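Loading example: each entry is read as two labelled lines plus one structure line.
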Amino acid sequence: MKVDRSHSHPITMYLATFFALLVLMILTVVMAEVHVGPPGVSAYNNLIAMAIACFKATIVVLFFMHVKFSSQLTKFWAAIGFIWFLLMFILFADYSTRPRERIEGWEKLPTDQTVAPH
Amino acid sequence: MSVKADPVYHQFEDIEQQNESYIVGMWVFLVTEIMFFGALFLAYVVYRWNFQHTFYEAHKLLDVKLGTFNTVVLLTSSLSMALSVHFAQLKKRWHQLACLGATMGLAGIFLIVKFFEWKAKFEHHLVPGPGFQWHGDAPANQAQMFFNLYFAMTGLHAIHVVIGILVIGVLALLTFKKHPLVESFVPNEMVGLYWHFVDIVWIFLFPLFYLIPV
């Protein structure tokens, strides 16, 4: 389907996106101060912060970058980079299952440099 | 809406195909940019995973107020960039130029704030290297790694902001001179895509460096 690109969008769409971004930014700053989940566990706060950041990025891509109104080919290229990015981190989850092993000759590192599992 | 038809080059079927290929080309470039920044984000996650507590201690030395201010500045510059595309589509040249000027001005403010943030880090001996001084309880080398990543990632982002200012400046100059290259709104849209990408990178950098939870 051919998309008419010269068709402009109402200014209110850009303003609404902008205000949504500002509100979400304030939400991120506030949520950083509120601890969620069991004490000593930062995973929930990290998840919330990254979820908000992903949502912000999504509305920038959809409305500021006009991907919502673009052709299928543009949508594909807009998505593929972020999918690659996500895939890299999903594959990387394997890292957490592998403890750092001692290497011969490297035992005498000062405590400063050894990896402390948290 | 009566808009003067843009020239269609001989390799394209029609104006829609031509515009689409410009936009897709820009997105392909942005994919390489995602991969470029992706490596640094992965490095960040490795060290954050291992040294969460040190990163928490080290991040307290960053100024959240300045970071938040810079986020607002960059989000506003994204809005003015989006509006410049909007006015380019409506062929409102002076509105478009005003928006491009605002975007450049806001980008300049972002860099000035960044400069003073970095300057404070130099004065407090928090720049990685032989002069690095750390007085916290957490191991110094791990804290140094935090500042390594901080300078590498915000530095690379700042380089993108500088390039953005230059590109927007060229676009504004061509638009001012009514150069045939920028008769269509598509060049402005392409510069806009780049600028919004720079904004997206900051959207992720801001919580990762300034808002680390306990």
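Chain B touches chain A through 60 residues (CB under 8 Å).
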